[in-house]
Design goal:
Structural class: alpha/beta
Distance between the termini: 17 Å
CATH architecture: Alpha-Beta Barrel
Order of helices and strands: EHEHEHEHEHEHEHHEHEH
Number of domains: 1
Strand content: 5-15%
Largest sheet: 9 strands, parallel
CATH topology: TIM Barrel
Shape: globular
CATH superfamily: Divalent-metal-dependent TIM barrel enzymes
């Protein structure tokens, strides 16, 4: 990969009531070359009926890869958020997601620490997260697929505790998927946060923030999707400069709310990337 690329998360079509194939066709038509898929355990009625493009990991991954290939796309990552403080859920889910990502040709599994039970202390949670990571990282290393930690819950959206989780287990496949919008919405400085982890960034959720959600800044740990990149408050030239300085050559995977925002995002980010 010669330089930073741009992709689109199929989450942009979450409200479109369309199947995976519709999302992939639209992503390719807009000029993207990469997509990010959202993974499910079991079978989901809405996805089965073609109203949403999430992918069941009970499907043959090579079947799904064939569908993605037919649209001229590559999968940058799979989105597989799991509650790492609940290992009975997260270990099988993340292990399967690693295997699935490898079969799809993706290099990352994007996840966060998940919702931690309210009765669990930080030290208890981190001990269990350590156990979960010790179980799943050997699979990541065998398949050469990164566990890409995303800032999205109460510990991972704060830089100091994000770094604690990141460094719980030493592995070349325990790295970072910063979500620029979540970091901002949690009340953090997204540029300072990014600079602190830039050398370990393997994938980026390119999420801009604007509109009514701005009033929630500092009260939440993230939002499901943002506005079009370039139409919010984030400085994409500054973000790209930080990433390039660190040698990042992966994918900016846009997370936005609509198909139209996806088109606006690739136009803006392509312009930013051309302005070296």
């Amino acid at each position: 990969m010669a330089d930073i690329q741009v992709g689109l998360n199929t989450e942009a079509f979450r409200h479109a009531d369309k199947p995976l194939e519709y999302s992939l066709a639209a992503i390719r038509k807009q000029g993207y070359r990469y997509c990010e898929l959202n993974m499910l355990n079991g079978r989901d009625l809405l996805s089965e009926a073609g109203y949403y493009g999430a992918v069941s990991m009970e499907r043959d991954p090579l079947e799904v890869k064939g569908i993605v290939d037919s649209f001229g796309l590559k999968v940058s990552a799979v989105s597989a958020h799991a509650p790492m403080a609940q290992p009975e859920v997260s270990i099988p889910f993340l292990t399967r997601a690693i295997e699935y990502a490898d079969a799809l040709g993706a290099t990352c599994v994007c996840t966060d620490e998940g919702v931690v039970p309210g009765w669990m202390s930080k030290s208890q949670a981190f001990n269990i997260i350590y156990y979960t990571l010790r179980r799943v990282l050997p699979a990541a290393e065998r398949h050469k697929v990164h566990i890409a930690l995303e800032p999205h819950q109460k510990y991972s959206v704060k830089l100091n505790t994000y770094l604690e989780i990141l460094n719980l287990v030493e592995s070349p496949y325990m790295n970072c998927n910063p979500d620029t919008g979540n970091i901002f919405m949690a009340g953090q400085d997204p540029y300072e946060f990014l600079e602190a982890i830039a050398k370990r960034v393997v994938h980026v959720h390119a999420k801009d923030i604007g509109g009514v959600v701005m009033g929630e800044r500092g009260k939440v740990t993230g939002v499901p999707s943002g506005c079009a990149c370039g139409e919010g408050v984030l400085d994409w030239r500054r973000i790209v400069k930080i990433l390039r300085k660190a040698g990042f050559k992966g994918v900016l995977s846009v997370e936005c709310s609509t198909e139209e925002q996806g088109l606006a995002s690739i136009k803006h980010l392509s312009k930013v990337l051309r302005a070296k």
